[in-house]
Q: What sequence folds into this?
C-alpha cells in the first residue's frame, strides 16, 4: 500500500509514514513524527515534535499536534513527547502540546474523538473512547479516564482527574476531580454531581444491579448528611460490593484535589 503526499505538503525526509498514509495539501510533518498505517492528515495540519500517531487516525484541517508547550517552565532543548493511539479523530484547529520536562508525555488513547478547537496541554492523559466536545480546554496534567465525555466549552484546572464513564456538562468549570460513573453539571456557579450517568451506563451495557448500586452509593455520599469519610464507610458496609462501587470509593479516597 503506497503513501500519498500532496505536492504542496512539506514532509521531512526523516518522518516515518506507515502504509497507506495520506498527507493533504499544505500540511507539514516534522522529522520526529511517526504515523501509523492508513492515518490521514488533512489540509494545513501541522505535526511537530516527537509525535507518534497510531493507525487509522484522522487529523482534520489546521490541527496542531506536537507543538512546544505553553508552560513557562519549559526549557529549550528538553525532549518530550505526544502519543496518540489508533482510530482517534482530531478535529479542526485542535491543539495537542508536548510535555514540559524531559521524557514527559501528552497521551491521547484509542478511539478518542477530540473535537474542533479542543486543547490538551502538557502532560494531559486521555484514556480510550473519550469524547471531548468542541472547545474543551484541558490544562496541564489533567487525566481523563476511559469512556468519559466532556461537554462543549468546558475547561479543567490543571491536575484534575475525570473518572471512567463520567459525563461533564457543557460550559463546566472543573476545579476538582469528577468521580467515575457520575453525571456532573454547573449548578449556581459550581460543578455539582447530579447522580449516576444512567443513560450512558445503560448504553454501554452496565447491568441494572450495577446502576442501582451506584445510585445507592450516590445517595450516601451526597444526600445522607454524613461527612465524606463517614459516607464512604457506609457505602463500603451497606452497598453491594460490586467492582464499580469499589472503584468509586477508591477514586474518592485517592483524590488529591478533592472530588466535586
A:
Amino acid at each position: 500500500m503506497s503513501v500519498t503526499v500532496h505536492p504542496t505538503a512539506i514532509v521531512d525526509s526523516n518522518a516515518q509514514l506507515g502504509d497507506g498514509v495520506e498527507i493533504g495539501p499544505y500540511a507539514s510533518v516534522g522529522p520526529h513524527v511517526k504515523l501509523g498505517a492508513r492515518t490521514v492528515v488533512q489540509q494545513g495540519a501541522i505535526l511537530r515534535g516527537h509525535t507518534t500517531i497510531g493507525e487509522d487516525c484522522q487529523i482534520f484541517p489546521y490541527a496542531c499536534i506536537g507543538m512546544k508547550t505553553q508552560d513557562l517552565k519549559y526549557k529549550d532543548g528538553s525532549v518530550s513527547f505526544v502519543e496518540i493511539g489508533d482510530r482517534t479523530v482530531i478535529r479542526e484547529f485542535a491543539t495537542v502540546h508536548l510535555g514540559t520536562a524531559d521524557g514527559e508525555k501528552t497521551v491521547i488513547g484509542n478511539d478518542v474523538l477530540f473535537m474542533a478547537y479542543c486543547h490538551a496541554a502538557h502532560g494531559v492523559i486521555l484514556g480510550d473512547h473519550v469524547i471531548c466536545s468542541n472547545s474543551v480546554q484541558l490544562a496541564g496534567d489533567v487525566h481523563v479516564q476511559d469512556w468519559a465525555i466532556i461537554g462543549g466549552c468546558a475547561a479543567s484546572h490543571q491536575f484534575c482527574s475525570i473518572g471512567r464513564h463520567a459525563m461533564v456538562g457543557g460550559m463546566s468549570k472543573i476545579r476538582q476531580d469528577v468521580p467515575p460513573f457520575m453525571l456532573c453539571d454547573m449548578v449556581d456557579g459550581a460543578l455539582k454531581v447530579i447522580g449516576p450517568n444512567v443513560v450512558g451506563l445503560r448504553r454501554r451495557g452496565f447491568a441494572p444491579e450495577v446502576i442501582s448500586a451506584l445510585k445507592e452509593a450516590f445517595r450516601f455520599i451526597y444526600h445522607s448528611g454524613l461527612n465524606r469519610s463517614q459516607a464512604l464507610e457506609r457505602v463500603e458496609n451497606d452497598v453491594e460490593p460490586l467492582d464499580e462501587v469499589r472503584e468509586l470509593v477508591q477514586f474518592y479516597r485517592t483524590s488529591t484535589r478533592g472530588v466535586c
Observations:
- The chain has two domains: 4-141, 202-254.
- The first helix runs from residue 198 to 203.
- The chain has four helices and 28 strands.
